[in-house]
Design a protein that fits this description.
Blueprint (H helix, E strand, L loop, with lengths): L6 E8 L3 H16 L6 E8 L2 E8 L2 H25 L6
Antiparallel strand pairs: 1-3, 2-3
Length: 90
């Protein structure tokens, strides 16, 4: 198939609480399971309220792009969750 996925990053994102962590996991899981290109692969999991994102990519450019995408999506979900909760302030 394509080139070997030899570049790797593991992101550990501590999230405000377990409910938000679960929401982020559920939102990112489809992106990890079906990446839009073969330039990277990803997996997502939770350790308590810490989101673990493991990304493997062909090259550093693909790795950077994937990291930016997953971080942006995670930030958006956290922002939405916070805006829906009357007790939370950004």
């Amino acid at each position: 198939m394509g080139a070997e996925l030899k570049h790797e990053a593991v992101l550990r994102l501590p999230l405000p609480d377990a409910k938000i962590a679960e929401a982020v996991l559920r939102a990112l899981r489809p992106e990890a399971e079906r990446p839009p290109t073969g330039r990277f692969s990803a997996s997502v999991a939770l350790e308590g309220s810490t989101l673990m994102i493991c990304i493997r990519a062909r090259d550093t450019s693909s790795l950077r792009a994937a990291i930016n995408s997953f971080m942006s999506w995670a930030r958006a979900v956290v922002s939405v969750c916070r805006s829906l909760s009357p007790r939370r302030h950004i």
